[in-house]
Write a structure and sequence with these properties.
single chain; 296 residues; mainly alpha; hpI Integrase, Chain A; 2 domains; 12 helices
């Protein structure tokens, strides 16, 4: 079974051109399903019936997994079975008729511009690690790229003279401009820090950890949480919040949706429109407040 999942993930990444996020998420979902099946008496994933899959989805719900997680898990299982059908290893997809759970669409949580400034000021700019961390945070907010894209960047993807980065995801790539703050932070990191941290001089990975190896998603997540605590930002903070904040702040300051869509890499502009709605709601609340509050 392990070989079939490995082949499926290879197919997703190299044939279908799925993003790193999708491949990693599907791999994780299928691994969790395997663990569940082992607990059920070593049931084989490619021998499951529709009722078995529904039972697993119910199990996830009972363990407080969100509708989004359950939905993505079902998508992973469906895609895996479709692959087995394509490879003539299965005749029917047992997950085909299972209804997706309804997902309540929530407005993305963003940080205020003041919170962003406070967050970016936390790393110690006289410290090797702090200089690296400041460069990562500045670049993430300057471009709105995903954390998976951040840690995949190569030195050759950065053009500081022209002020842009090249972000590559599967067969797609996009050019994203960067401003002075991010350029200055990157210049300092590349000029004074990266060669100190780097374990292998031939490694072209832009950001490395303190052991000299490529930065991981988990490693960056911990770094972000540390600085968020230092900045007294309450509530759960995630790397994706910086992406949301990047987009929302651009729209708030007059950027057109088409440009924001291109920078974010959204295939459908309807995905980007949530930031326009968010901006409109904020403006309406501000107008009501200033008109109605006695001390506004």
């Amino acid at each position: 079974m392990e070989e079939k999942i490995t082949s499926f993930l290879y197919y997703l990444e190299h044939i279908k051109g799925a993003s790193n996020n999708t491949v990693q998420s599907y791999e994780r979902d299928l691994k969790y399903l395997e663990i569940y099946l082992e607990q059920k008496g070593n049931m084989q994933i490619d021998h499951l019936k529709e009722a078995d899959i529904e039972g697993y989805l119910s199990y996830l719900k009972e363990h407080q997994k969100s509708a989004a997680t359950v939905s993505r898990t079902l998508a992973a299982i469906r895609a895996f079975y479709q692959y087995l059908i394509k490879e003539n290893q299965l005749e029917e997809n047992p997950a085909k008729k299972i209804a997706l759970p309804k997902i309540e669409k929530k407005a993305p949580r963003i940080l205020s511009q003041e919170q962003i400034v406070c967050l970016l000021e936390q790393p110690n700019r006289k410290d090797t690690k702090g200089i690296r961390d400041r460069a990562m945070l500045e670049l993430l907010y300057a471009t709105g790229i995903r954390v998976s894209e951040l840690i995949s960047l190569k030195v050759t993807d950065i053009n500081l003279q022209q002020g842009y980065i090249m972000c590559r995801d599967a067969q797609k790539e996009r050019t994203i401009p960067i401003g002075k703050s991010a350029i200055n932070a990157l210049q300092l990191y590349l000029g004074e820090v990266r060669h100190i941290l780097l374990r292998d001089a031939s490694d072209k990975t832009l950001f490395v950890n303190c052991n000299g190896y490529p930065m991981t998603r988990q490693g960056f997540w911990k770094i972000l949480k540390t600085y968020a605590n230092m900045a007294h930002i309450s509530g759960e903070i995630t790397p994706h919040m910086l992406r949301h904040s990047f987009a929302a702040h651009l729209v708030q300051n007059g950027a057109n949706l088409k440009s924001v869509q291109q920078m974010l890499g959204h295939s459908d502009i309807s995905t980007t429109q949530v930031y326009m709605h968010l901006n409109q709601e904020t403006e309406e609340l501000m107008n009501v407040y200033h008109k109605s509050h006695p001390r506004a």
